[in-house]
Amino acid sequence: MNGDRRFPREELPGERSRRSMYHAKPRLTNITFLAFDTETTGLQPIVQRLVEVGAVRFRLDGNDTATFQQLIDPNIPIPPEVQRVHGITDAMVRGKPAIEHVLPRACPEYL
To answer: What's the domain range around 83?
Structure first.
């Protein structure tokens, strides 16, 4: 019945200030944003694999920025037409860590 105008209720002391705190509109310069970028071995996400993951954490005021970038060995060949799109070759990813080793290292820092 919370929020239903048919059932008015009395506010508890301090309740109004708590509610306004949760509904306050933060300034965009106070929000931290996170942008992810990925490159894959092709366009079909079910069968393709990641070859690179990158992340940038930023604020519009320029503070608290961090970046992460890692090539990933997909353990399958990258088709030549895909290599032309992102510029990542089989030789560049050979011997790089697998995705299961990259994400745990990247995500805690950025999420």
So the answer is: 28-110
The answer to whether residues 51 and 42 touch, using CB atoms and an 8 Å cutoff, is no
Terminal-residue alpha carbon distance, the chain: 35
CB 103 within 8 A of CB 76: no
pLDDT per residue as tens, the chain (111 positions): 555 666 566 655 555 555 555 666 778 878 888 888 999 999 887 889 999 999 888 888 877 678 889 999 999 999 999 999 999 999 999 999 999 998 887 766 555
**pTM score:** 0.69
CATH number for the domain that contains residue 71: 3.30.420.10
The answer for residues whose C-beta is within 8 angstroms of residue 36's C-beta and 6 or more apart is: 53, 54, 55
**Count of domains in the chain?**
1
Gap between the Cα atoms of 70 and 83, Å rounded? 17
Instruction: With respect to residue 41, please indicate whether it lies within any of the assigned structural domains.
Output: yes
Closest CA to 58 of 101, 89, 28: 28
